[in-house]
Amino acid sequence: WFELPQRFEMGLELLHRADDAAMLVFALQRLVQPLAGWLAPQWLAATRITLVLRHETSVRHALPDTELVLALGDPTRDAAQIQLLLRERLSRTALPAPVYALVLRLDQACAHAGRDAALWREQGTAGAGADAADAPAVFDRLAARLGADRVCRPVLVADHRPERAMKLVPAPQAAAAAGARRGAAARTAQGTAHGAGPGIANGTAPPAPGPDTPPRPTWLLPEPARLAEDPSSGRPLYQGRPLALRGRAERIEAGWFDAAMARRDYHVAQAPDRRWLWVFREQRPGEAVAHWYLHGVFG
User: Fold this and answer.
1) 3-state DSSP call for residue 89?
2) d(Cα 37, Cα 179) in Å, to the nearest integer?
3) What is the largest CA-CA distance in the chain?
4) Angle at 178 (CA atoms; ends 175, 180), nearest 5 degrees
5) 261 contacts: CB under 8 Å, gap ≥ 6
6) Across the chain, what does the average pLDDT equal?
7) What spatial distance separates the first Cα and last Cα of the chain, rounded to whole Å?
């Protein structure tokens, strides 16, 4: 029986030196195909790959190797996809010296059973599903072309203050965090199914939002905008006219732990032009009275 090695690392010595990174694309195929063949029988997908460019093979004139690290937001074992991403990285790499050999190393991999696919595709039904499945591959290609730190995705942050409840992180990190959350949810569900019950053992998933969950706007202003106040009614003014407050106030009080305390009463308000706004009233440090602020707009 043939047993696959425990890890994948394969080198290739070039027949001629390469003075430009674009000359290495064809040689990469002889490394990427074996990598895909190593991953497939083990039902694995690559999440982090390193391509080592060896500039000199002799010890006497050895130069430091150039390492290109490829972090994949969407794990894959598709040779064409890996080849495309490495080609994008090479296209924006300036070689400090000629390259005489290549080494492809798999740093991280994860279990991957593949994606479900329909046996037959009806005409006109392939668009939406295909686009959704191809989106992570597009993010990986953009990260390979522009840099991993320049393609970001929003992730939630455990903070009640709306302006701090989301942050932008590089796409591979966002995908890894999402995978960790899915794994934790799966372990929690498994513990509940085994009789642990919700709310005990090693943690539970947060409760699903109920029908009384306050609404949230689709767009937040970069900074809350100060609103004037109608002295007769105490209501906030928007474009010189009073806003109609709908529903009861929602109190958000947080920030004691990082010296940025926020104690606000949020309201859903309707503007005279029928737009729905998200406003709050807050007394900020150093101010004698509380003031109204516009924080978001509902789509």
Assistant:
1) helix
2) 24
3) 88
4) 110
5) 254, 255, 285
6) 82
7) 62
Query: What is the C-alpha separation between 107 and 96, in angstroms, rounded?
Result: 24
Alpha carbons 247 and 276: distance in angstroms, whole number: 12
Q: Give the Å distances, CA to CA, from 200 to 80, 188, 191, 242.
A: 46, 10, 10, 49
Instruction: Using the structure block, give the residue that is written with the tokens 């796409």.
Output: 171
Nearest by Cα to 73 from 148, 125, 7, 22: 148
Q: What is the DSSP letter of 148?
A: G
Distance in angstroms (rounded) separating the CA atoms of residues 73 and 134: 12
- Pairing state between β 219-229 and 241-242: unpaired
Tell me the pLDDT tens digit for each residue of 230-284.
988 889 999 899 999 988 889 999 988 888 889 999 999 999 888 999 999 998 8
Q: How confident is the model at residue 179 (pLDDT cuts 50, 70, 90)?
A: low
Q: Which range is most confident: 125-129, 201-205, 269-273?
A: 269-273
